[in-house]
Amino acid sequence: xxxxxxxxxxxxxxxxxxxAVGWLTDLLLRRADARHPExxxxxxxxxxxxxxxxxxxxxxxxxxxARTEWRPLREHETAVGRILTLVLxxxxxxxxxxxxxxxxxxxxxxxxxxxxxxxxxRRVRTQVTLIMRIVTAVVAVVAAAAMLLxxxxxxxxxxxxxxxxxxxxxxxxxxxxxxxxxxxxxxQIAFGDMVRIGDTVxxxxxxxxxxxxxLTFLAVRTWDERRITMPVSYFTSRxxxxxxxxxxxxxxxxxxxxxxxxxxxxxxxxxxxxxxDCDTWDGRGWDxxxxxxxxTTVVIRAIVTAKDPDDLWTTRCAVRERLVAxxxxxxxxxxxxxxxxxxxxAPYET
Length: 350
Hints:
The N and C termini lie far apart (about 130 Å). The chain is of the alpha+beta class. It is built from 12 helices and 8 strands. α1 (about 5-35) packs antiparallel against α3 and α6 (about 120-150) packs across α9.
């Protein structure tokens, strides 16, 4: 065959074969997905078709380029072969990561559909996220190492590097104590079930929801849409509040300062009326009592419950607002006030 026509024939044949294999694979996955709709794996594997096509095309070109007789290609055969090898390694790593992601995500999706406990779902979600990050990092490191080994100069350098690996490892360990500490803390959080994605936490006085967990940092979304990024070692070395651990239902308090003449029994009845009309109260419990006194006021504590932290916040705000409005309308004398009358004389004074 004419060398000028041989190269387009090889490239065209590789492209056509790649498209045919990709189309056939996608067809089989679509049929499997139609037959087994309860399994999301087949649908998620379809997202790997682009990486599969790149991998097939690189493999076909890598296997067939040496058989072409085109002179410019023969003159740069080593360079072209190395480039195709690098592309093949990169495409293989991409394909492995996509397949692993599809398998892990489908397993998590099936677990989430079959589990009614939200805390277990959040725990598995956190572990799945970190596992995928670990798999991606390992595949990337292996692919990078394989790419470097394709260069003969790096192989020679590798022999001398291995001789001093012990000293370099000690120096790197000392210099990267903080990074390694965060790395091991990330493993501890992932598999120690300390904090999970979706948990409501209080850190440094800030209330928020855990939005992202990685091997080195953790992101908390606050109620006002701010993001607090903290090293994961913080959660393994310092105390913090996790409102979602052990169940998401919560008990909260509402404190009011009132005059000593406040009608506590009527206030208790009004609290029950407010809670019966409050959609976010879960009905598990409530109470109202005088918990403290000062020279000018008494401290009224109302206890309310809700199914999760968001509903608890809404319930507390509603109770506080309606109790204050009720006191101002029906019992204004019970609100805190500053006494300006003269003090009564002591019995022994003349």
